[in-house]
Records
---
Amino acid sequence: MNKILSAAISTSLLFSAAGMAAVMSDSVMVGGAAMYPSKNIVENALNSKDHTTLVAAVKAAGLVDTLQGTGPFTVFAPTNAAFAKLPAGTVENLVKPENKAVLTNILTYHVVAGKYDMKQLEKKIKAGGGHAELKTVSGQPLWIMSNGPHNIQLKDAQGNIANISTYDVNQKNGVIDVIDTVLMPK
């Protein structure tokens, strides 16, 4: 009886561990939480402790439904630390209802229609001779460039440079790349 019980427990643990490994292999950890490819951009971002400012801004701009849509979208997602680099009071001012249009313009400047993983971004950079232009959902251009092997930077309309710290966080409706600077349109 003990051998049968022991075998059953061992088998159960083995299948549980294998199942957990399969689930975890498809997810990426961002902000202390697993980002699941079966969830959409908003569902995953809500769980990231590093993106609470971005989530609050998306809600204030009324973009939740859009980013939960079918997409696909590539989102360059600034961390809380990226927002903290802005001048004091900027975020608090942007989330006010009277500044919704400005906030929406800034946030949609972080979104590109289509799903561009790192390999696709690298191909665009190579084809462009070291840099490439992406058209954002806001309608304004954003530039990508290589900064060494496996390192892509973004340049915004004001000349600010953002580094991608986490690539290819796949979502049901696109992909997220985590960045260290808030991108600013014209």
Note: The chain has a mean pLDDT of 87.
---
Amino acid sequence: MSAESDRPVLDESGHFHATDAPIDLSVYRWEDWVTLAFFWLLALTVFYQFFTRYVLNDSASWTEEIARYFLVIVTFLGASIGARRNSHIHVEFVYRYLPAALGRFMSTAVDLMRIAFLGYASWLSIELVPRMNNLGMTVIDLPMSYVYVFVAAGFVLMTWRSIGVARLNWQRGWSVLERPGEDHEDGAAQSNGGRP
């Protein structure tokens, strides 16, 4: 602990002396901010739905459908953030009991299978976008392909970020599956010149 953190919060005269840690926004990427914007659009839509239903007693008909689409967008763009941070669900218990070479082989296989699955899902979702152009939304007169573009973008971003995570794992010679206590973000920051 530093001398700064050992100081009391209140001095003898009752004045408040607390300092916050500096805010570092450099850990966030563009998809974080886009996802945050869609999250707030979702929140505003749900609030408007609540307000019109329970305060005005005349519910807006479009809010439920649009909120559902915003939730889909937030889900798939948010999943790309999880892929970048390597924070999706892992089964790391098995790696504790495996020899190091076998654990390394299996973690590399997991990276390759993840990239293959997400690449295939990207291809399928990109193929689906033009087909959904003929299907319209229920309440709003827009094609469903507008929503599916974000699904495809989410899968493409997840694939791209998974390739970056796999490359990082190969460069440093281990993954978070093999060393669950290690911080992936620190390793990513070191390999990308300070940017995870």
Note: Residues 3-191 form one domain.
---
Amino acid sequence: MNRSPWPSDRPKTGEILVEIAYGRQVTVKYEMNRALSPEDFVDVLERSGLAERRPTGDLTTMRGMVENTNLIVTAWDGDLLVGVARSMTDFHYACYLSDLAVDRAFQKQSIGRVLLRLTTDKLGPQCKLILVSAPAANDYYSALGFEKNERTWVLPRGKQIDS
């Protein structure tokens, strides 16, 4: 099995040439655990469409999200953040992928796939990658090999655990 994060037809370096709108080609650079400002994070969430599911108007929460994650893989077009995979993990048993966002102008170029592969490459051989998918992304994740799990539970904020 090819364990390289790069699709087989792409160069095996930290940069991938992609074509975006109007035939414009750019080089996307991938980085591991690069410091990320909450403003850049909010910006890529907005450009990806994921912002509607995140508290982007609460900069304190957004800052906490980027400062307290322990595995973050980013994709950059120069100084512009075009993709992010943000996770919390113990690196051995479970990794929760909190966010996978790719700027709409850069989608369909394997950027999300590379972000996920770079994330999984940092995990131990027994570590599962777990996520809660936006409904529109279900087909995307199943096509990548994710298996649907009917046993996932969420305790919404404001709800208390009964004694």
Note: Strands lie at 15-19, 25-32, 71-77, 80-89, 94-102, 128-131.
---
Amino acid sequence: MKNITMRPLRATDAQAVLAFLKTVGGQTKNLTFGSKGISVDVQEERCYLDMNAESEDSCELGAFDGGELVANGSIKRVSCCRPRMAHRFSVAVSVRKSHWGQGIATALLKRLIQEARIRGAEVMELEVLCSNTSAIRVYESLGFRIVGTYEKYFRYAPGEYADAYWMNLYL
């Protein structure tokens, strides 16, 4: 993982984040979006990143190779207005295909676990496609365990589905 730096994403990173999401969305079917990225504009992404920079309920991190965003990761409290669920945080990570297998996802997840602990998390949760064995191995190496299966989690086209595992890490 040489030359990779991690830091919180800022509003000034919005354009790079949106370009990154389009790139990674086109490189794999494992994400919730495709090559069009997510449907927000630069100003909306700036507001989102700015809001998260000050939040006790979320954290957005980027991994940079030089000046290029090559991975991102986030945590978000599942529900800040429902006290019985406020101990749970969702987590998500994506890595540019050119940087797969370099330990970036593991490093991002370790940092996100620390950030979740600081924010009072007791449970971290994620969904991962059952076919994404590389990601599952990374999550399990950090203590996540499969707690259930969601059949037909993704629908790629009529009749074409992918199942996902729910995985939790108990802090």
Note: The domain at 4-170 is CATH 3.40.630.30 (Aminopeptidase).
